[in-house]
């Protein structure tokens, strides 16, 4: 799918104080770099645990984090799972880019994406993308299990906007 950009400060925090301080300092010592490498590994493990807890089926998942970028590898069961994994990673605080190197077992059309803006809700987003505000449930279902309530989205969050089947 490629490289995706996200709003770095939106989402659940996965990094500790050392990481935040590191970005403020241009020159850092080797010891500090090692601490940051460990924090990145810890954050990657936390993301892998989140993916597992959400029951997103992926074989041999690996996440590498450097600075505010994450690279994700593995074999996803479907295109939908692939996209959800990218969103779980990218919608985490401290991640600004996700380099998606996931493969999928069966190729399917990619979904569109939408970055939530202040004042938006799923109905407004559905109206914009589908021409029908009542199709908000399509967007909600496409973003489960990351979304647990259709009324709880936040500015900066990126959502999957699946293609509608033409019947």
Automatic annotation (TrEMBL):
SMART domains: LysM (SM00257). One of its GO terms (cellular component) is cytoplasm. CDD domains: LysM (cd00118). Residues 112-161 form the LysM domain. It is found in: Cytoplasm. Keywords: Cytoplasm. Pfam families: LysM (PF01476). Its main location: cytoplasm. InterPro entries: Bact_Kbp, LysM, LysM_dom_sf. NCBIfam families: PRK11198.1. This is Potassium binding protein Kbp.
């Amino acid at each position: 799918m490629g490289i995706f950009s996200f709003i770095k400060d939106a989402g659940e925090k996965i990094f500790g104080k050392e990481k935040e301080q590191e970005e403020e300092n241009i020159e850092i010592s080797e010891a500090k770099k090692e601490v940051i490498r460990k924090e990145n590994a810890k954050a990657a493990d936390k993301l892998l645990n989140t993916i597992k807890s959400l029951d997103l089926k992926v074989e041999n998942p690996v996440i590498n984090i450097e600075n505010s970028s994450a690279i994700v590898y593995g074999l996803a069961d479907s295109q939908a799972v692939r996209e959800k994994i990218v969103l779980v990673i990218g919608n985490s605080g401290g991640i600004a880019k996700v380099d998606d190197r996931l493969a999928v077992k069966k190729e399917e059309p990619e979904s569109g994406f939408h970055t939530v803006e202040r004042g938006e809700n799923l109905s407004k987003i559905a109206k914009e993308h589908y021409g029908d505000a009542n199709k908000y449930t399509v967007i909600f279902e496409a973003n489960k299990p990351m979304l647990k309530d259709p009324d709880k989205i936040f500015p900066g969050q990126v959502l999957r906007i699946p293609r509608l089947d033409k019947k």
